[in-house]
Design a protein that fits this description.
- It catalyses: a monocarboxylic acid amide + H2O = a monocarboxylate + NH4(+).
- Belongs to the amidase family.
- Its EC number is 3.5.1.4.
- Helix 8 runs antiparallel to helix 9 and helix 9 packs parallel to helix 17.
- It is globular and about 60 Å long.
- The protein is of the alpha+beta class and 463 residues long.
- The strands form 3 sheets. The protein has an 8-stranded mixed beta sheet, with helices on both faces.
- It has a single domain, classed as Amidase signature (AS) enzymes (Alpha-Beta Complex).
- The protein is built from 17 helices and 13 strands.
- Strand 4 and strand 5 form a beta hairpin.
- It starts with a helix and ends in an 11-residue tail after the last helix.
Length: 463
């Protein structure tokens, strides 16, 4: 197989080829290392590439394959977002304020290694994962492989850019307010925000007071399902998510919604609205019962519940840095805002989550899945917010990405499915939101859409 075709084959196909002896783990790794050497100086998807460590892991994986061992990701390279610990590496959180290299893996990385994954490197993030664009004073700007003048999104921007450009077949992301779904949308790949507690965050538990979760960024639905089977911390049948991705979802009742969860006026772009209309038409053609219906979003929920958790979480993260004096001024200002939320206030915020979630989730009494636009507009230009303060930046970026944060508040799973391209030639998506703990239905439905409207063959100009 041509090296470029191999790089874009996806994790599931690569795992099969490795198991069948069609390729070797060291050969596969070198395909990605060569591509990183050639392309990542423009893209800046990685903060660090583990050349020596990954080569040792690939050799060890090949020995296990030669001995007949079979694991779901044995020999497959996986990129890790730089908010998860990899033994021997710094966890930078996108800042120069970080501490020394860590001695042990995060639980999610340990589980990926147990499934046979080769850890290729750590991907770039904005400082403390705050923004939906991946730029920092410490590590520069990560660029969108579809247009180098635009952001890939954030905060999992490096992970999404790496998967989109063929610099990794699969990547770990995290999502505290859209940080998997936003960059997956703008880079044209599949991203899944998992159910809260689906994947362990140990030793960084309860990120942003329960808003943040880990999840996969992948080229295909099956690739994401393999990742989820390898990392789930909630007991269930072995291989349940790969099985879900391989089966038809059955006839579902699906609600299309363009309503934004905040009372602030947000203008959703015509291409994004057209994508949702097209998704509704396709879902009807696939035999689903499609209705137009909006969740009941309490107008206060984002401001009184999500926002305090978001800001106080940032404040706690800033306080936890080894050298907080090196944080960017904008980050320090946002962290200061978060410091005004006392422990007593946070306890009250968390206690109020149940009532808000019950109201929002009441739509799932009647429907199986809610489908929304992936984002309201396309990605911003690199440096667009460079001279903006904390509040101004947050208000401006919120206009682009209004459909994500409410589902971090409720904690339930949501995925973005690549759709079409906007007028600037940049990818768009539609968002699928499932019932609590029901990633399986999202995977089944997303896989059905993938068969009807394939996307994994698309390659950006920088590839």
């Amino acid at each position: 197989m041509d090296p470029s075709d191999l790089a874009f084959a996806g994790a599931a196909e690569q795992a099969r080829m490795l198991a069948d002896g069609e390729i070797t783990a060291p050969m596969l790794l070198e395909v990605y290392l060569e591509r990183i050497e050639r392309l990542d100086s423009d893209l800046r998807a990685y903060r660090v590439v583990r050349y020596d460590g990954a080569r040792e892991e690939a050799e060890a994986a090949q020995q296990r394959l030669d001995a007949g061992e079979r694991r779901p990701l044995l020999g497959v390279p996986v990129a890790i977002k730089d908010d998860a610990d990899v033994a021997g590496e710094v966890t930078s959180y996108g800042t120069g304020a970080h501490g020394p290299a860590v001695n042990s893996d995060s639980e999610v990385v340990r589980r990926l290694r147990a499934a046979g994954a080769v850890i290729i490197g750590k991907t770039n993030v904005p400082e403390l994962m705050i923004m939906p664009f991946t730029e920092s004073l410490s590590y520069g700007a990560t660029r969108n492989p579809w247009n180098l003048s635009r952001t890939p999104g954030g905060s999992s921007g490096g992970s999404a850019a790496a998967v989109a450009a063929g610099l990794a077949p699969l990547a770990l992301g995290s999502d505290g307010g859209g940080s998997i779904r936003i960059p997956s949308t703008w880079c044209g790949v599949f991203g899944l925000k998992t159910q809260r507690h689906r994947i362990s965050q140990e030793p960084h538990d309860d990120g942003w007071y329960g808003l943040s979760v880990y999840g996969p960024i992948a080229r295909s639905v099956m690739d994401a399902a393999l990742f989820l089977d390898a990392t789930t911390a909630i007991p269930g049948p072995e291989g349940e998510f790969a099985a879900a991705a391989a089966r038809a979802p059955g006839r579902l009742r699906i609600a299309l919604s363009t309503k934004t969860p905040t009372p602030l006026p947000v203008r959703c772009g015509k291409p994004q609205l057209t994508a949702l209309e097209q998704a509704g038409a396709l879902l009807r053609d696939l035999g689903h019962d499609v209705v137009i219906r909006d969740p009941e979003y309490p107008p206060w929920a984002i401001y009184s519940n999500f926002l305090p958790r978001f800001l106080r979480g940032i404040s706690d993260d800033a306080d936890g840095q080894a050298h907080p004096q090196y944080l960017e001024p904008r980050t320090r200002n946002i962290a200061k805002m978060g410091s005004f939320f006392s422990d007593r206030r946070m306890a009250a915020v968390l206690a109020a989550e149940s009532a808000a979630s019950t109201r929002i989730q009441s739509i799932f009494d009647d429907v199986d899945v809610v489908v929304t636009p992936g984002t309201a507009t396309g990605p911003s230009r690199i440096g667009a917010y460079h001279r903006r303060g904390g509040i101004a930046t947050l208000l401006l970026v919120a206009q682009r990405v209004p459909y994500q944060q409410v589902w971090n508040l409720t904690g339930q799973p949501a995925a973005v499915v690549p759709w079409d391209f906007d007028g600037d030639g940049l990818p768009m998506s539609v968002q699928l939101v499932g019932r609590p703990y029901d990633e399986a239905t999202l995977l089944s439905l997303a896989a059905q859409i993938e068969v009807a409207r394939p996307w994994a063959h698309r390659r950006p100009p920088l590839s």
